[in-house]
Amino acid sequence: MISSPPIRCVLTSRDDQARLQLLALLPAADGAPGEAQVAVDSTRHFQTVLGFGGAFTESAARTWQGLGPQAREELLRAYFDPRDGHGYSLCRVHMGSCDFALGNYSHLELEGDVALESFSIARDRESLLPFIRGARQVAGRDIRLLASPWSPPAWMKTSRRMNNGGALLPQYRQTWARCYARFIAAYAAEGVPIWGVTVQNEPMAT
Known about the structure:
There is one protein chain. The chain is of the alpha/beta class. The protein has a domain at 55-197: Alpha-Beta Barrel (TIM Barrel). Helix content is 26%, strand content 9%. The chain has helices at 58-65, 69-80, 122-126, 128-139, 173-189, and strands at residues 10-11, 21-22, 55-56, 90-94, 144-148, 196-197. Helix 1 crosses helix 4 (128-139).
């Protein structure tokens, strides 16, 4: 029987402040009777990992903008550079405000504007879009963006509030759907394509 090589273990822990700490090698069991076994067949492949990443938020973007030029560059490289950083390639962006925005807002603030004449991503242009563009430039490749809303505009909801629950009023379903399409088109016009969307972030949360 061929003996298995020892297992290398790396520990990162919140409680004792360990950060990528290399632990002592663990001996690999060779299938002693009664012991659990894990077999890895590297020749068989199953699902494909689309990417790894984090979230672009307004608060993170504003914090990034407040850094000096060198620190801004270092942060982007640490996260998005595929060779010298984590190489993030799949990230989420909020459609309208989220709990990491600087306040509640939507892209369609004018109540009753079912024609979307007042639709605007002007607020996104202030910090969120520059943050995403900077990341894409450092990555040197496309970053798949998943857009997700935390809430429809307050005036479209039963609660007339963006926080603490409420539901989309039936008469505004088509309008809200068109907001998705307008958001995707607006980001594309800024050179930032949206790869996918979700219907609602945490739909059962209040």
